Amino acid sequence: MVFASFRRYFSMRHQNSKIQGLYDYCKNIFSPSGTPAPSSQALHKLALILADTIRPADVGLKEEAADDDRGLGFFGVNQQSRIARWAKPITYIDIHESNSFTMCIFCFPTSSVIPLHDHPGMTVFSKLLYGSLHVKAYDWVEPPCIVESKGPGHARVRLAKLAVDKVLNAPCEPSVLYPKHGGNLHCFTAVRPCAMLDILAPPYKEYEGRKCTYYHDYSYSTFSAGNGPVCVGEEDEYAWLAETEPCDLYMNSGVYAGPPIKP
């Protein structure tokens, strides 16, 4: 009943600009460096706003009804396709950025990828606006389980547990990841053209320890000889992650075309 009343209030107050209402609410609950952290009730209300009110048109997007005709598909691509699938870059659209939170949109062509990366000390809300997107996400195993590899490159790997491995099809509920659970390390691959609205709080800021790090995931068996607190039969739920460079990540900057936001 309380949340139903909240939905009606939010709709009436911000019926002319849903993105303004989203911005106002984020500004109210988030603070620089994430201190103090929003209450669980406040975060739940934000998820309701994203689920109930925000559509592609509300942020100036028009849903792409057709594929981009490259025919690369998603599963089982060969090496040549792996190179070709980044030929058309992802478009990044900045809506708002402050010391408290970032609000942005990623527009993906088919088969484009944002590689596995982390969000240290951050809470991230993601709303799929249209299309289909595969999400694979991990959380670190605690206490840390680290192996110094003697293989090529002497990779230092850390054990992580699979949190999410599924395809999202719009419309769907927004996803939320937290600093230590919910899939803080994730990878996105577009099954069909799609767009994702993201809210990151607090935002990336390297000098405050919130630097984006990219990873490569290895199967558990790769470094499992006598390592890791994993039971027999659960190996597929774990992976070893090694830091890497996002050499195949290309993005264009897009222009926000939705209703203007008043600070």
Give a written overview of the molecule:
By secondary structure, this protein is of the alpha+beta class. It is 17% helix and 33% strand. It is built from four helices and 13 strands. The chain has helices at 2-13, 18-29, 40-53, 79-84, and strands at residues 90-97, 102-108, 113-117, 123-130, 132-140, 146-148, 156-169, 175-177, 185-190, 194-201, 214-219, 238-244, 251-254. Strands 3, 5, 6, 7, 9, 11 and 12 form a seven-stranded antiparallel beta sheet that branches. It has a six-stranded mixed beta sheet with strand order 8-4-10-2-1-13, covered by helices on one side. Strand 1 and strand 2 (102-108) form a beta hairpin. Helix 1 packs across helix 3 (40-53). The longest helix is centred in the N-terminal third of the chain and has 14 residues, at 40-53. The radius of gyration is 19 Å and the shape is globular. The two termini are 31 Å apart. Mean pLDDT is 84; it is low at 1-14 and 69-86.
Summarize the structure.
The protein is of the alpha+beta class.
Draw up the topology in text:
Blueprint: H1 2-13, H2 18-29, H3 40-53, H4 79-84, E1 90-97, E2 102-108, E3 113-117, E4 123-130, E5 132-140, E6 146-148, E7 156-169, E8 175-177, E9 185-190, E10 194-201, E11 214-219, E12 238-244, E13 251-254
Parallel strand pairs: 1-13
Antiparallel strand pairs: 1-2, 2-10, 3-9, 4-8, 4-10, 5-7, 5-9, 6-7, 7-12, 11-12
Helix content: 10-25%
The count of DSSP E runs of length 2 or more, i.e. the number of strands, is 13
**Alpha carbon gyration radius:** 19 Å
Q: Give me the number of helical elements.
A: 4
Strand content: 25-35%
Specify the biggest β-sheet.
7 strands, antiparallel
Unreliable spans are: 1-14, 69-86
**Oligomerization status of the protein chains:** single chain
Roughly how many Å apart are the termini?
31 Å
User: Averaged pLDDT, please?
Assistant: 84
- Listing every helix as H and every strand as E from the N terminus to the C terminus, the arrangement reads HHHHEEEEEEEEEEEEE
User: What is the overall shape?
Assistant: globular
Which structural class do you get from the secondary structure elements?
A: alpha+beta
